[in-house]
Amino acid sequence: MDRAKIKRELENLAAAGLPAEPVQEKAPVEVQAEGEAGGKEKAKKAEEAPRKNGLIETEYAKRGAHLDVQINPDQVVRAAEILDGEGMTLEMVTGVDWIKDGQLEVIYDYSHAGGQLFRVVVRARVDRNKPDIPTVCHIYGGANWHERETWEMLGINFAGHPQLEHFLLPEDADFYPLRKDFKP
Amino acid sequence: MNELIRLLSYMIGIAAFLGLNLAYLGWVERKGAGHFQRRTGPKEVGPYGLLQPLADGLKLMSKQLIIPANADKALYMCAPILIMVPAVLLFVAIPFGEHLVPREFNFGLIMMFAFASVGGLSILIGGWGSGNKYSLIAGARAVSQNVAYEIPMLLTAINIVMITGSMDLNEIIRQQGSYFWNWNIFRLDKSVLMPVSFLVFFICSLAETNRTPFDMGECEGELVAGYHTEYGGMGFGLFMMAEYANLVIGCSLTTILFLGGWQSPIGIWPGPHWFLLKMYFLVWCFVWIRWTYPRTTFWGLLNLSWKYLIPFSLVNLLLTALFIKVF
Amino acid sequence: MSSLAQSHLRETFELNIGPQHPATHGVLRIKVVMDGEYIDRAEPILGYIHRMHEKMGENRTWNQFWPNMGRLDYLSAIAYNHCYAGLVERAMEIVVPERAEYIRVITAELNRIQSHLLGFGAYIMDLGGFTPLMYAMDEREQILDLLESVTGSRLTYCYFRFGGVYNDIDDDFITGTRAFIKRFRPQIPIYHKLVTGNVILMDRLIGVGPVSAEMCRKYGATGPVLRGSGVNYDIRRNEPYSVYPELDFDIPVYKECDSMARYMVRMDEMVQSCRIIEQALDKLPEGPVMAEKVPKALKPPKGDFHFAVEAARGTFSMRTVSDGTNTSYRMRLRSPTYSNVSLFEEASRGMLLSDALAFLGSLDPVIPEMDR
Predict the structure, then answer these.
(1) What ipTM was assigned to the predicted interfaces of this complex?
(2) What letter would DSSP give residue B260?
(3) pLDDT digit string (tens) for A42-52?
(4) Which domain holds residue A105?
(5) Extents of the domains making up chain B
């Protein structure tokens, strides 16, 4: 496993997915730095806006991850390929409903299977009304169940998934319980 | 008239013996299992839990008989009876003592094997009639297991027939004479492999009675409860009782063929008590094995029979023939 | 796959193993397409004991979520306590007193032994040997008594708190634990003599259910499954938390990749856990068991946090997204068996039914933890 290589490739990947707005290239690093330093107003402003694509190096002791990268939904397969090539394992796939931003976030947690301490978080945000994201099942077989669960809990549609059927919930469940607007 | 009284008393005797055995072998097994497993086993009902079998019997009899919707009713109902009938019938031929034998047949051994194989068939009927896939798999397994193990069992028994020249069970015992070195298991002058054939016969009777480690028909880890998954109440009770009846018969047959039946090992007081002692020792071994070993796989079971036991039995048969011819 | 299974004559049937079945250790259902005794396809179906712990995490305050930690994996609940404590302590930057950390390790390892004991007994019971279960239960009972005396519960522990543990251990617990270890150590060779060396057991386990290291990586399998495939990976070593770095213990690794390897990993881990407990008891410092100044109403800072521990069945990790309020915005629980069992479908293809169930047992699933 080559940490520098993973970082470089993911950074390039995130940069490739950025919209052509030159001002925002440095933005994510700023958010992180100020969020932790405590520049209150700026941070507050920055935190209210959804996070932009990009790579952040986080402190493991504080966050539990080394790299935190946000990319476009169509790039998650490429990210999985990069990490797969470096011997990382996909530990879990999960989602978060950012209802204020009208977005759903898919989070992929990678760790190194060979025993080195290196955790990578890959995130991608999809539109809440059209939550489509490609599946990584063909790369990580274990993603199958995790994606299936994320689909049934949050309604994120993993395009190309072999079996998006109800899994933990009853077969006739027509709701997404982990969405923030779900009322039981 | 005398003959009628004799018949009646034997019938009552067999029924009593059988009833006592079926009830209390269950108790022995549970108590034995308890002590193997660092616990006490049944102890609440009666002293030492001795009334437990009665309580179990009452419970089983008072249960509602439920026939599954998918079941073939006729087959479902007749399987437990069919497994019990030959088990009871076989006691007719067993010589408990020199003169304590309900009926002396000169083809007793053949009769034993003939009726014992009905047991496997009734397991298949029960498995098929239940309309349950687990039962069906179990039934199919039980039949191939019975077929596979009957062959080495018969081949080993033929050794004894060749040595004794008789199929009369009482005659086989008589020829073994008193003192334990005259027993068939130690008759090395007839065939040096006699102790091993005893072992083969013992393994086969384990398999024939569907006991762990060969309980492929039951196999609760895989097939829930095997062929009696769908049976409740006394249907299940009959299957359980048949298992113990077969256990007694298997052990009796081993005792007769190899351990000298009612003959005394030390030359004094030959009689039924020796027979029972030997038989119950074997039964205890069965219990012991059951609570010690895990189960084999079905494939492992068939491999053992077809690849090891049957070739060995054939070689053994040839060797015995050679010994008899040469010496 | 057998030549029989490939021939055009084959005829398959479906078999539902579970939700109530002796071999599934709970309410797991496996839909199996069988070809005679061979398995064509086995699809595990979950959700029979799904309780939506993740949603509960969003609705309850951080403190209120504690009892849920005991109800995921009812066999190694203390490891789950540990993960939740670690997660929030990481977010809040709470420093835990050293004595509390040692107590955490001692109880977690006792809990691990207990879990492996039951796993061992239940596994052999799956294979038809009933007696080892009772032996294992006997030892397990001692552990439960010990843990009950300090945590107050026997199974669904809710013992840890943010910043320490709820209750200090007393001398009775320490002497009891030492006595237990003294009693338990000689038992393991007995188990090996009774069970492991048995020809039938070896025949049933060796070479059954091969799971390669690569397959483990693809499916995210961890714990004894991964270590039975020759990968030296244990969160306690590779991603150290608590006071594990200060303790000397080995990670048992077997290269055979079969059910026997996984079984042996568990057996050896019990010995290692004994070592850990003994060292931790020796090193146990004096002092408080709760950090000072842990606020009653917790409000961790915004952001997401991740924490992983080694539970008895593998890596248990939690990811929480905090929005700075007194409840979590999103609570994600990653349970080890969920990933471990997900490889069952691929690995069991073409197996015999009895082998497949022996293989399933070697994954040691705990269903409430999979379903969450």
Answers:
(1) 0.83
(2) -
(3) 555 555 666 77
(4) 3-18+53-159
(5) 1-62, 71-326
